Amino acid sequence: MTKFYQDILKEPAELLRSLDYTLRDGRSSLEEAARILKQSDNIYIVGIGSSWNAGLAVLSFFNAAGRPSMLCDASEILHFGSIPKNAAIVFLSRSGKSTEIVQLLGKVASSDTKIIAITNTPDSPLALRANVVLKMMATFDHAVSVSMYSVLAMIGALLACALEGSLDNSLSVQLQSAMSGAAGRISSWREQIAASDWLDPRSPTYLLGRGASLATCHEGRLLWEEAAKLPASAMPTGGFRHGPQEVVREGLRIALWIDRETLRTQDLALAEDLRRLGVKVLLIGQDLPSNAADVVLQIPAIRREWQFLIDIIPIQIAAELLAHAGKQDCDTFRLCQYIVEDEGGIIPRDARLEAAAKE
Predict the structure, then answer these.
(1) In what side-by-side order are the strands of the sheet with 205-209?
(2) What is the pLDDT of residue 322?
(3) pLDDT of residue 335
(4) What is the predicted pLDDT for the residue at 345?
(5) Do the Cβ atoms of 271 and 281 come closer than 8 Å?
(6) Which pLDDT score is estimated for 349?
(7) Would you state the pLDDT for residue 339?
(8) For the chain, which terminal residue's Cβ has fewer other Cβ atoms within 10 angstroms, N or C?
(9) pLDDT value for 351
(10) Burial of 145 per CB tally in 10 Å (0-12, 13-18, 19+)
């Protein structure tokens, strides 16, 4: 069993523990962070890599609430942006040590910018600089982000709910039920995917979704790249139909996340058309017709806006299986460091110096 799959197996339990902490012992910090956002004229959500993907889910909650905010890649806003007065930045960072995050903290140090840190490292430079720290209280993953991604996204979404005053006991109960239900389906999802012919290391893959599940698509793309060492594309389902659909051909693989209500009929029709054109289609969602795709993965009942929290798990499983199929080690990074602490090159510094000495 790979360590990647071990991390997937424990992900629901990590989410449950983090949810319980955030809504109990961490509730005062969550409310304080919400108070800061209410008093700020400008809200920024900042992350990089998997954390930026999690920010897509958080952004969808702010958008749905009519709270204007910006999702920024940490490197881009560091080198090409400026922060206006009376702004608040919600930093998403499992380690709180990435070089872009640390440098951006220095950039805003002399301003009135308020810092909210969602991190798993309370003694990190990010946490020590923050006005409020929302602790993830999760176990670090072995390599690629699994629980780290989903917990970051969950806490950010809970913050958006706290800002709107929409946190209630019924939400907590429903999320707990869905997470527990997802834990019971991991093995069957894996068997279902493994028994299909949807995974193929030789075939290009597109991941399409809407709303907060767009975050799932982008995180799935990153897992294709980090774990299976293969390229993939991720985009909104609507955006795919405005040009990118010209790539459709026999043998293409497409994963499509279906919302329980919004554009459900239209997206099921898209899946049907894609299959007619020879595409192998995988669907993920709630209460889906069993014959609607080559592989149909049913997720437990959950509020539609919170579906992203568990609809990531099937594609994590798929990435782990694809790594097997392509004979790749999903537990090891070939080039990437676990925490990126400099901005130059992609070869680890020691290896770069060794190579330079031989030239």
Answers:
(1) 233-236, 205-209, 253-257, 280-285, 295-298
(2) 98
(3) 77
(4) 59
(5) yes
(6) 60
(7) 57
(8) C
(9) 55
(10) buried
| Residue ranges of the chain with per-residue pLDDT less than 70 | 336-359
Contact 100, 75 (CB under 8 A): yes
Q: 202: Cβ–Cβ under 8 A, 6 or more apart, which residues?
A: none
The Cα–Cα gap between 274 and 252 comes to 9
Report the relative pairing of strands 205-209 and 253-257 from DSSP bridges. parallel
Query: What 3-state DSSP class applies to 321?
Result: helix
Q: What is the pLDDT of residue 140?
A: 95
Alpha helices, DSSP H only, in the chain? 3-23, 27-38, 50-64, 74-80, 99-107, 125-129, 147-164, 169-183, 186-195, 213-226, 237-240, 264-276, 308-311, 313-325, 349-358
* Alpha-carbon gap, residue 340 to 212, rounded angstroms: 26
pLDDT in tens, 93-113: 999 999 999 999 999 998 999
Task: Give the three-class secondary structure for 142.
Answer: coil
Q: DSSP label at 143? A: S
What secondary structure does DSSP assign to 15-51, as a single string?
Answer: HHHHHHHHHTTTHHHHHHHHHHHHT-SEEEEEE-THH
pLDDT for position 333: 86
Q: Which of 108, 13, 25 is nearest to 100 (CA)?
A: 108
User: What are φ and ψ of residue 43, in 5° steps?
Assistant: -115, 125
Q: For the beta carbon of residue 289, count every other beta carbon within 10 angstroms.
A: 11
Please give the pLDDT value at position 1. 93
Position 337, amino acid: Q
Statement: the pTM of the whole predicted model exceeds 0.90: yes
DSSP tag of 280? E
